[in-house]
Amino acid sequence: MQISIQTLGTRGDVQPYLALGLGLARAGHDVVLAAPARFEAFVMGHGLAFAPLPDDLLDLMDAPEGRAAMAGRVNPLAMTRLVRRIRPMMRGLFEAQWAAAGGAEAILYHPKAVASTAIAERLRIPALLGFPLPGMTPTRAFPSPMLPFADLGPLNALSHRLFLRYGDRLFAKPLARFREEVLGLSGPAGPGAVPVARLYGVSPVVVPRPGDWDADSHLTGYWFLDEAPGWRPDPALAAFLEAGPALVYVGFGSIPSLDPAATTALVIEALARAGLRGVLATGWGGLAQADAAHVHMLDAAPHAGLFPLMAAVVHHGGAGTTAAGLRAGRPSLILPFFGDQPFWGRQVARLGAGPAPIPQAGLTVENLARALGEVARDPGMARRAGAIGVRVRAEDGVGRAVALIERYAAR
């Protein structure tokens, strides 16, 4: 079977789908992964066919207004202006998605790949939603993970529906024009434009399956990509690791900081007050290079190799980084910026695998130092995180997702 996987966003939006694509390829399927053009070498370096999607949306995220939005520092008016800048870019994205789907017998897509269901409707092939966040199936169990609320009680299910409706309306006009002018589809979307299943690359250990989900929504377990399985620390990092105890990883992945030097200084001071040593990853600009005896700076390192060497991990709460910390069996302190990151912070705290999250907007040296001491030295927290890691490592999320894709595509 020829399968088109379509995703959009930063590396955290690409890596799980690459893992899933490789699993499908091992099962004998022909897979093409469509993702932003800047990830071509990353995808093809793993031996998977690649179709480029435009980079202009990521370029906008690199611009000052985009960096402010990703840092959670924009007001509603500024966000409206940002969306207005994005809308003219959508036609190029839709056409690239259409080109990437040539010959496909099924499409698996990230919700940001907005045209996927329309393309599946036109080709008369099944579309399956795949997402590392359980946020596209309404439930009474918790509010939409994209909203900053821990619990809305009887309004939980409504919050999901409202968020999904907002997402549908955001780019409805450019999508309607594309459906008519390129795909030859007129009128409202037909039954073929509805995904036949929703697959969530999330462990049920971390998010128990809600009892009111429909039968076609599934928690498969995480979609891990094990990069550089033979990775070893370079000599400088190895020497730092051996120089003393109580190592804490701090990194914010693809999330930039409006003032990375100030953020880095705050983290370094908080580590010092907590009496801890840290390994700091600069990532996409969340932290800056700095020099202090109790920290080691690096650009990046494979989480699967580095995290087990730490006493605890501190990060922004991206779905992939959260999963990596739990898989390693290490307590996590989450410092969320926006979006689904507070949701993951609350889930980790609910499991007892980390303290309560501290939003970036309220981060201080004092509260970070207190939380660092707790996450790195609480034996109960370490024990609970270790037990979760054992269960997560026993799962085969990719294998489970592949079996479901095959079942739904055949049906």
UniProtKB/TrEMBL annotation:
GO biological-process terms attached to the record: carbohydrate metabolic process; vancomycin biosynthetic process
Record domain Erythromycin biosynthesis protein CIII-like C-terminal: where: 295-384
Keywords on record: Transferase
Matches recorded under Pfam families: EryCIII-like_C (PF06722), Glyco_transf_28 (PF03033)
Family matches, as CDD domains: GT1_Gtf-like
Molecular function, one GO term: UDP-glycosyltransferase activity
Domain Glycosyltransferase family 28 N-terminal: 5-135
PANTHER family: STEROL 3-BETA-GLUCOSYLTRANSFERASE, STEROL 3-BETA-GLUCOSYLTRANSFERASE UGT80A2
The protein's name in its UniProt record: Glycosyltransferase family 1 protein
